[in-house]
Design brief:
binds zinc ion, alpha/beta, single chain, five-stranded parallel β-sheet
């Protein structure tokens, strides 16, 4: 087996190799996998490559990438590949066809938001699909649920049922970055495959092959070693957006921050295809958290350890003018907002919350009531 498209994750590949072989020999009826690990380190890519490898016609070096199964799965058009990506199936038809275009040309992980909920109807449609007795044309059908943690408990249980009823030749893969939100009953039934943060080498291997003008080491640092995030940062111009956010916060400019935030969330047209590259609220939120940590490091005489190295001059200036208790308040806000933003709270409130430590009590009290 060769999983060339998966960077790093050597241990995962070792675990998957015998599993894929067993499936290719059609020795088991159904399988429930949980791919657990941080965002953007190759979980979805691996799931797709495993689906190819199991169904590939070649008997050596599978997935070959050229047979009809590999090609169709790679284009998300294989009849035995069922993908549940939050936010994809609930858009208008026009939106849906745009998604398909995106799938064909680019990797999907840029486009799914870590906080989008999965609707119960999407799950019901999928389960209905599973009543079919056998896969259409492949050895196994694959049901891949992206952000499995965003399924509510009824949907999670519905998936568990599909396994108990032994739908033949079905592999269900939950892709999960917040395992605490997976039901214990589901968790205990799944075979868990753990993905790690990428090494600098794996990260550089990936980005080294691309012709990019970005500072790759900086990208590695600020994306928390996540290829998926790093790519999104490039497409959404996040490296520049960061300095705007810093300036807005530094100047206590709430209107400015609201504008920066909404422009970022609403997206920026890419060159090819006119695709809208939208940033996620969590990108800004996480930057805010790291910003606070950087400020604390500087205040404690450790400026050489900061993550946002390109913003060092601004951070040095900022840290001289901001009290330590306000920085600590930033960290508290970061924690609190990280929690509620994943519980379906109105995203437009984020900039108000982030500005709270700088704009006094009124804002703080408003924010606390959420
Ligand atoms: Zn193939």
């Amino acid at each position: 087996m060769k999983l060339d498209r998966v960077y790093g994750q050597e241990r995962v590949k070792q675990v998957l190799e015998p599993l894929v072989r067993t499936l290719r020999e059609e020795k088991i009826e159904s399988l429930f996998l949980e791919f657990i690990g941080p965002e953007g380190v190759g979980k979805l890519t691996t799931a797709i490559e495993v689906a190819k490898a199991v169904n590939c016609e070649s008997n050596q070096d599978y997935p070959c990438g050229n047979c009809s199964h590999c090609v169709q799965i790679g284009h998300f058009q294989h009849p035995d590949l069922i993908l549940i990506i939050p936010g994809m199936n609930d858009e208008k038809d026009q939106e849906k066809s745009k998604w398909k275009e995106v799938y064909r040309t680019l990797e999907p992980r840029l486009f799914y938001s870590p906080i989008k909920q999965i609707k119960i109807e999407e799950v019901r449609d999928t389960i209905k699909e599973l009543w079919r007795e056998r896969p259409y044309s492949g050895r196994y059908r694959f049901v891949i649920v992206v952000n499995g943690e965003n399924l509510n408990q009824y949907s999670q249980n519905a998936f568990l049922k599909t396994l108990e009823e032994l739908y033949p030749r079905t592999v269900v893969i939950f892709i999960v970055s917040v395992p605490q939100k997976i039901l214990p009953t589901v968790h205990s039934r799944a075979k868990k495959i753990r993905f790690n943060y990428l090494s600098l080498n794996a990260f550089m291997d990936y980005f080294g092959s691309l012709d990019l003008e970005f500072n790759k080491t900086l990208l590695f640092q600020i994306s928390s070693r996540s290829i998926g995030r790093a790519k999104r940062y490039i497409h959404t111009n996040f490296l520049d957006v960061r300095s705007k956010i810093l300036k807005n916060i530094f100047e206590s400019d709430l209107d400015g921050l609201i504008t920066t935030y909404s422009n970022f969330i609403n997206g920026r047209k890419g060159d090819e295809l006119g695709i809208l590259y939208s940033g996620f609220p969590t990108d800004i939120l996480d930057f805010y958290g790291v910003l606070a940590e950087d400020l604390l490091l500087i205040k404690n005489g450790l400026p050489e350890l900061i993550v946002n190295t390109d913003l060092k001059p601004q951070l040095l200036e900022f840290s001289g003018k901001i009290r330590e208790d306000i920085v600590l308040e930033m960290l508290r806000v970061y924690k609190e907002v990280s929690y509620w933003i994943r519980s379906n709270v109105d995203e437009s409130l984020v900039p108000y919350a982030l500005m709270a430590p700088f704009i006094g009590r009124v804002f703080k009290d408003t924010f606390r009531s959420y």
